[in-house]
Design a protein that fits this description.
The complex is a heterodimer of chains A (158) and B (502). Chain A has 158 residues and is an all-alpha fold. Chain A contains 8 helices and 2 strands, in the order H-H-H-H-E-E-H-H-H-H. The longest helix of chain A has 23 residues. Chains A and B meet through helix 3, helix 4 and helix 7 of A and helix 3 and strand 5 of B.
Chain lengths: 158, 502
């Protein structure tokens, strides 16, 4: 078993709508970022972006509470998530160390982070209704497509 | 004197049934309003109804949440209401959380954030929930200049008005704080309160101030349902005349009563039928209603003493047409028995049904049940409220038939058990009398404004098909005592089938 395979212990969530939406969020970020960027960093950037957008609605503390719950859930299936930290008071929000990517592999780390994103969408849907959660996140996607270069630059610098 | 052209102030709908009437026509556009009240008084719901009634993608509503109820929970609960359209959330209605600014920065920065978001979105409606939590700024001198809440509100009002936004600041204030200087800035103040009286809670709304409008004064009751707030404007005193209706006679559906009243009761009048339990009041009321329906007049029955299903089942047993008329949309039975009811709410429900059906006849069965359904606070001025209710109903041209129970069927006759007889134009009393060890029923017309009527006590029976009036109880004295005595030489009156039945 490779190191990358060890990082992925949980069941794949297949093509659930929440997983699809999470993937779209990631793809939207990836398309804006440099070619040399890793998948894991692109996925973390998608989380950063969603954190920023949702914070406008529900407040930074409220949004962090949602992400913290999603992270806790993701950790049960993806041990690699134990090494991922959330930092609500600074940027980037989702901290992914280079060593983590090295140790677990880029693809596996990205998938684990994407799992957290999908769980966040599910959680939001349970709280305010799937339709509104989807709408909020679609709104975030639309903003994403308008570009968020400044913030992404900060992540690259970090 | 020269006539200057007035700057027209457009009115926005509040989206709250009944509130626009209280506001004097709606919310003045670009006004700066405060919505005050204690916790759970309905401020947030009111603000959401206003937003959903007015927001568009072009002129969205901005809802700033500060400290207090977390936004997620607010959204979770708000979307349970029927007015909440998820399609509008995020586009026409944008929620913005200011808790970080409030926790970490001075009021100046909070104001700046609101202003910059307003400039960005160009909203038609702006809500700040709750502005009172801004009153204890968490900012420090190092973070920049601070100013007090009064100044904050003053500056916010200037900014929002210049951006042509109609704005609402929600705050938790007690009624005793109405003189708070912060309220002087507002163009409009809506005060929501909850009054607890014994085991009932009554919600009340007051438009304390609204510039450029003449609101309805006083406290108006409101209720919060799955549809949000519904305000029941206080029934105004009837200063105008009743809607003119040809003084035609209406059949009561009981030929004997029609004969006693000189050809039927007068259209547009208020009639009260009083009697002890089991005397057939509801039966006569149903006959009155069915006579109208047979004549093409739609009707509304407001019941208070039993569930409508039971009422309809019983009435249908006597007359199968009852259920058919309900099905045909000609008759509506409305049930009003929440035990914290206000007279204004009852009127609103009846008037709404009258309007919907184009009803000409209304039955209130019974006043006794109605009084019991009222919150204790409203029972105190029941007579006055009922006077206004009946006045409002008859002013629309409908004929109102009320029943009232008198306690004790055999004692001295009480003509006005409810002490509300002055509200009615016509009073018919029913009672039990004991004759030779038998219980007999008699009725009489004791009041009929502007019309001759029978002065006799007539016997009657309650049969399967309804009330049937018999002949007069002749030869007896002291009928009103319940135990009449046969005059010397008179023959005892025996029950007999009336010649009056057609």
């Amino acid at each position: 078993m490779t190191t990358a395979e060890q990082g992925k212990a949980g069941p794949p969530q297949g093509q659930l709508p929440t997983r699809q939406l999470a993937r779209r969020l990631v793809e939207a970020r990836r398309s804006e970022r440099s070619d040399g960027d890793t998948s894991a960093r692109a996925t973390a950037a998608a989380c950063d972006h969603l954190f920023r957008e949702l914070s406008r609605w529900v407040g930074r503390d409220g949004c962090h509470a949602l992400f913290a719950r999603a992270l806790a859930q993701a950790r049960t299936d993806y041990p690699v998530m134990e090494e991922i930290q959330l930092r609500p008071q600074s940027e980037p929000y989702v901290e992914v160390a280079a060593e983590t990517i090295m140790a677990h592999g880029d693809v596996a780390t990205a998938e684990a982070i994407e799992s957290m994103l999908a769980r966040l969408v599910e959680l939001l849907g349970r709280l305010i209704g799937e339709d509104m959660a989807m709408k909020l996140i679609e709104g975030s996607l639309a903003l994403s497509q308008r570009g968020d270069a400044t913030f992404d630059k900060r992540r690259e610098e970090a | 004197m020269k006539d200057y052209e007035r700057a027209a102030i457009r009115s926005l709908p509040s989206g709250v049934p009944g509130l626009d009437i209280v506001l004097g026509g709606g919310l003045p556009e670009y006004s700066f309003n405060l919505v005050a009240g204690g916790p759970g008084s309905g401020k947030t719901i009111l603000a959401h109804q206003i937003m959903f009634a007015n927001a568009t993608v072009e002129r969205p509503a901005l809802y700033f949440t500060v400290l207090g109820e977390p936004t997620l929970k607010m959204l979770r609960y708000q979307r349970q209401f029927s007015y909440f359209d998820p399609d509008l959330a995020g586009s026409a209605i944008q929620f913005i959380n200011l808790s970080a600014e409030v926790m970490e920065q001075a009021l100046g920065e909070v104001l700046q954030r609101i202003v910059s978001e307003t400039e960005r979105a160009k909203p038609g409606i702006v809500v700040v929930d709750s502005f009172r939590t801004l009153g204890s700024p968490h900012g420090s001198a190092e973070r920049g200049p601070t100013f007090d809440l009064e100044q904050f509100v003053q500056r916010l009002a200037l900014h929002l008005t210049s951006w042509e936004a109609t704005s609402f600041l929600l705050g938790e204030y007690g009624v005793e704080e109405q003189r708070n200087p912060v309220f002087t800035v507002a163009d409009g103040i809506i005060w929501l309160s909850q009054v607890t009286d014994r085991n009932s809670v009554v919600r009340k709304l007051q438009v304390v101030k609204t510039r450029g409008r003449a609101p309805m004064p006083g406290l108006h009751t409101f209720r919060i349902t799955d549809n949000g707030l519904q305000v029941f404007p206080r029934i105004p005193e009837q200063t105008g005349k009743r809607k003119l209706r040809k003084r035609e006679r209406l059949s009561t559906g009981v030929p004997g009563i029609d004969e006693m009243t000189g050809g039927g009761i007068i259209a547009g009048d208020a009639v009260m039928l009083t009697g002890p339990a089991g005397s057939g009041k509801s039966t006569v009321a149903t006959q009155f209603m069915m006579a109208g329906l047979a004549n093409g007049e739609a009707g509304v029955i407001a019941v208070f003493e039993e569930y409508p299903e039971q009422y309809v089942a019983r009435a249908t047993t006597r007359n199968p047409e009852v259920a058919k008329m309900i099905e045909a949309g000609k008759l509506e039975v409305i049930y009003l028995r929440p035990l914290d009811l206000s007279v204004d709410e009852a009127l609103a429900a009846i008037l709404e049904a009258v309007e919907r059906l184009g009803a000409k006849r209304v039955v209130i069965d019974s006043l006794s049940g109605f009084e019991a359904a009222l919150a204790p606070a409203f029972r105190e001025d029941f007579r006055e409220s009922l006077y206004r209710l009946v006045g409002t109903l008859t002013a629309t041209g409908v004929t109102v038939f009320t029943t009232a129970e008198v306690i004790g069927g055999f004692g001295e006759l009480e003509f006005s058990s409810e002490k509300v007889s002055f509200i009615t134009d016509e009073i018919i009393v029913q009672r039990y009398v004991e004759i030779e060890g038998e219980v007999r029923r008699v009725m009489a017309v004791i009041k009929m404004r502007g019309s001759e009527h029978s002065h006799e006590f007539l016997t009657y029976e309650v049969r399967a098909e309804g009330v049937v009036v018999g002949g007069p109880l002749t030869g007896y004295d002291g009928i009103s005592t319940g135990v009449p005595t046969l005059r010397a030489g008179a023959k005892p009156s025996k029950p007999k089938r009336s010649r009056r039945q057609g």
